[in-house]
Amino acid sequence: MYDNDIAVDLLLGFKVMPKLTRDEKYIARCFFKLKIHESNGAAFETLFTAIMSYAEPEFRQIKPWGSIGDRKNDGYIASRGIFYQVYAPEKPEESYSKVIEKLGADFNGLVKQWPNVHEFYFVFNDKYLGINPDASATIDAIGGQYNLKKTGFILASHLEDVLFGLSDDQIQMIVGGIPDPAKLHTINYSIINEIIEKIKNFPCEDDDSNLIVPDWEKKIVFNNLSASVGMRLGNGSLFLGKLNEYLNNQSKFTADDIRSRLRELYNTEKKHQHYQGDVLFWRMVKLLVPQNTKEFQEAAIVILAKYFETCDVFEEPVEEVQQ
Questions:
Q1: Cα–Cα distance list, 208 to 48, 73, 205, 235, 237 (Å)
Q2: Helix-helix angle 252-267:191-200, to 10 degrees
Q3: CATH code, domain carrying 95
Q4: Is the pLDDT score of 5 beyond 80?
Q5: What does residue 277 show for φ and ψ, rounded to 5 degrees?
Q6: Global pTM?
Q7: Domain total of the chain
Q8: CB contact set of 80 (below 8 Å; sequence gap of 6+)
Q9: How confident is the model at residue 27 (pLDDT cuts 50, 70, 90)?
Q10: 32: domain range?
Q11: Are 313 and 199 found together in one domain?
């Protein structure tokens, strides 16, 4: 399976230059995710075709035609020998045996009827759940057996990244009209709030023997954080595996937006409000949570632990920077 950056390059090779505001992009993303979850079968193929037709001028959709069908080809770019097969079951998490079966059958039918197949992509509506490792191994085996240049899955998160590389009017043609965020006073359109809600529902680990709390002692001391805050960050780090797994199945836009929002928040509170140490930490927790309750605070600390680890918030010790 390809990560989001690679998938966008595979599909397009264009530069992402969105012009929508951050809040408008978030609303558009919500609308798109709703379309993904509601689109099964032919509806998902129509959505994929609409995005690809804007993104890649040479893309051609193949519609079933009488008794010959589509000859196992849902769309292609003839000049580059790139072929796509689309599959969108209602319950992707229960359909991986069908995915593996369909992969082999569809590709075998494709190469028998279409010449010059250099790249093959299976467009799968995983509904942001990710791909089964057996399915990933199957498409890798196909690529090796037929000596293809590239193979891979194109998932919902990849299509979302492609969508946000389109022009504003094209994005709105796909997702529909985007309301003015300023007029939506009762809704907080923030990806961070969405992630906090997700973290709140993470189950506790049945076996935490493989979990390792990062050694942040130098960084905690360097940033004038207390042992109490260090312990809370350590507890938050126990959920980083689940948080990273969730983010890996989301679009690149999601991770980038969270990172940029946190960095802006940190820089504003540190440089303009002159907060530091524990005061700065708790100020950020307070600004992140939609409700000042224990469960929301703990979820916000998980997010801070992730970006504390990557040095997007708080400062890295000077000696480590020099090394």
A1: 40, 46, 6, 12, 12
A2: 100
A3: 3.40.91
A4: no
A5: 60, -145
A6: 0.71
A7: 2
A8: 58, 118, 119
A9: confident
A10: 4-183
A11: yes
